[in-house]
Amino acid sequence: MAFNPATAALPAGLQNLINSATGGPAPPASAAQAASAPTPASQAELARSLDSLIGTLESDPKRKELVAQLKGLLAGTQSASPTVPTAPVSSGQGNSDLLGTIASSIASVETDLSEGRTPLHYWAARSSAAANELWTILGGGSREPFGQVLLGLIATLAGWGACAGLLVYLRRRVSARYGWKAALEPNPTSFELLSFAFWRTAPWVIAFVTVALFMRGMPDALGSTLGLVIVYAIVAGLLFSAICLIVFSAFNTAHRRVAVHQLLAQSRWPLFAIGACGALGDATANPVVTGLLGVNLAGLVSASANVAAAVLIGYFALAYRRPVTHLIRNRPYKRRRDHKLATEALDILASLWHIPILLIAIASVVAIIDARGSEENVLQPSLLSALLLVLTLFVSALLMHVTRRRDTRAHRRAPHLMRLLRFAITLLTLLMWLAFIKFELDLWSGPIARMIKHSAMTPSFKHALVTVIATVFGAWFIWILCDTAILNALGPSSSRSKALDPGVRARTMLPLVRNAVFTTVATLAAIVAAATLGVNLTPLLAGAGVIGLAVGFGAKALVTDLITGLFIIVEETISAGDWIEIDGSHSGIVMDLTIRTVRLRDGQGAVHTIPFSQIKIVKNLSRDFANAVFEVRVPFTVDLDEVSRMIVQVGADLQADYRLRNEILAPVEVWGLDRFEANWMVVKGQIKTRPLQQWSVARAFNARLKRKMDEAGIEMPVPHMRLHTPPSGPNARSQPDDGGEDEREQAIDGNSEPRRRPAATTTPLELGVLKEPPARRPTEDQKGSKSSPNSPGTDTDRL
After folding, report:
1. Per residue in 478-509, is it b (16+ CB within 10 Å) or e — as a string?
2. Residue ranges with strand state E in 398-528
3. What does the pLDDT average to over 368-385?
């Protein structure tokens, strides 16, 4: 029986049934051998086979005989089935897990490849058969000689060209006579669009219809048929290009004009090629053309044209993605403002429009190469797949848009609800895509789809996929619940009921607890998923136990750090952001805490990393409140009550300052006179401030107090020394001592030169005079002066 595409497209069981009923020959061993047959198929033979089958089914004796034959065939098949060799099964596991099933499926695919049941072998055999049919036509072995075929082809093309040229000439004369414009104006109306389409394509379409009607009454000839097929492809390309350009021109408004101009200038010839290739593939699949050219040659030309059209469609989607995106997205401002939901939907569609086009192109190419002769059944499933893909993408984008992060009050107060919503939408999106994949497998009936649906690995793969997805989403849901509980426990909603700021507490505790919980949940999920995939976890768990035991013995210091750090964090001794001093040697602000160390940054910017085991004493300056303690030195001659009132007034001024009022927690406290020193009195007090604000408040207090004392005429006392020297010379006793003319005084401070009395009453002193004079035994003359109240020896040495 010769190769016939209709017969090849039938199921193998129906072909066997037809051959058994009619007594015809057995079907070819493979499609490749059938395709290599040089003679064309006979439709009459297929009709006779079907008639014989119908007669067999209508006759009771013949039907019973056929049923008996089928039962015998079934019994023979069952008896022969145990002898079929099977793939070896590994002991212990078999194909119950996913990895074993994948291995057996790979072995099955290798068997098919070794036996030659691949699209490559099929198309190689069909190309060989098509070459034989072509050589038959060129050699004149068909019903018509090659010269007659060529003459009919040229005559058809010439007649169509002459008719179209005459119509174009008449169109130009009429346009020039009545002043009609052939070009399309910007912002055209519906009538202008239809007029442009008519005048652009009418001559070529009318010429094609005229030639087709002229050839209708003539007998079928290969040359004229080929010419008509070529004309049909050209006209279809022109018509498709014109329609697309008209559609593009309808969007020629506002911000779309650049995109429209680019499409009109560059996309004309690609659109023409797409339409021409599609029409050529459709025309060569016609039964008349197939009978004249040959089944294999016509099928090869049709498949090549369809593949070319699909590739050109994919090229157009990639090359003109941005212009078409602008056509879809750019709309007038009023519509974008009043219809925000439609605008967002169009934005999503504009960003995804090329994906279904690419899917149609890829699916068409794969189906044509893999379907083995069913090219005419590709368009409908491709369009349905593209429509379903667009719908799935659109719904997925809308769902993801719902979960877009928004900084609203409700989301800030209940962030866990947003996380649960995101979890539910992600799960729903995944289920949608799984349903889309299942629908695609049911829609396409090629060998690849049949292998996936009926393979031995499919049940195991489904079970493993469902288990892994359930494990991942279950772990995610548990993590959301645990994380929400941790956030609610460690981050209270208000700091009024907590002495510690919840933000600081969260920054300290959350990273440690959350990391521990996340590691635990992720580890358990990974173990369950690996067990589902067939991985033997016993060696892994045993090795992890041995490694953990070795690390426990060799990391005693690490364990000490962990335990000490755990107690420090739980007792809230240190928190992130605190200013602390550790053992009197390290001080700074706490940058972060890990499970082993604490990191400080001191006032100079240096970072100190200290293990918890090295911490003995911690001085924390950032808890609850702080006190800015001050000491004011005043002269002995100043009234203490006046000084106290001055300090209280300065504290009131600080509390009235808008820059410091929030940092001061209580009015200034004046404790009173604290102590006496050599040259001044010390008045002490404090100001209660927020943590870490005592230094800034103290600096402001000192500056304001200095200005107040200057205004009151109170001089800040400075350290000084008063020295008294005994008189020298024979007339020293007779010289009057009027209030200290003989005393030599020198006041020394840290930033000024020594100040001396006028030369009339003092004598210059050497630098050595600043030292305390050595103790000398008094002479007889000096003994009487010690009891005098004005004697230098009676004055105080240091004030």
Report:
1. ebeebbbebeeebeeeeeeeeebeeebbbbbb
2. none
3. 62
Amino acid occupying residue 545: G
- Going along 524-647, which residue ranges are E strands? 579-582, 586-593, 597-601, 607-611, 618-620, 626-634
Q: What is the mean pLDDT of residues 116-123?
A: 71
Q: Could you tell me which residue, 232 or 247, shows the higher pLDDT?
A: 232
Domain 626-712 has CATH 3.30.70.100: yes
- pLDDT of 64 over the 90 cut: no
CB 588, CB 574: distance < 8 Å: no
pLDDT band for 746, please (50, 70, 90 cuts). very low
Per DSSP bridges, beta strands 618-620 and 579-582 are antiparallel
Q: If one looks up domain 541-621 in CATH, what number appears?
A: 2.30.30.60
DSSP track, 736-756: ---SSSS-EEEB--SSSPPB-
Task: For residue 501, give both structure tokens.
Answer: 């700021």
The domain limits of the chain are 5-77+94-138, 456-535, 541-621, 626-712, 718-724+743-765+795-799
* Of 491-505, 536-550, 729-743, 782-796, minimum mean pLDDT range: 782-796
Name 78's Cβ contacts closer than 8 Å, sequence gap at least 6. none
Per-residue pLDDT tens digits for 401-441: 666 655 555 555 666 777 888 888 888 888 888 888 888 77
**Top-confidence range, 165-169, 172-176, 723-727, 742-746:** 165-169
Amino acid 601: pLDDT: 92
Among candidates 295, 374, 289, which has minimal Cα distance to 9? 374
Provide DSSP, 273-307: HHHHHHHHHHHHTSHHHHHHH-HHHHHHHHHHHHH
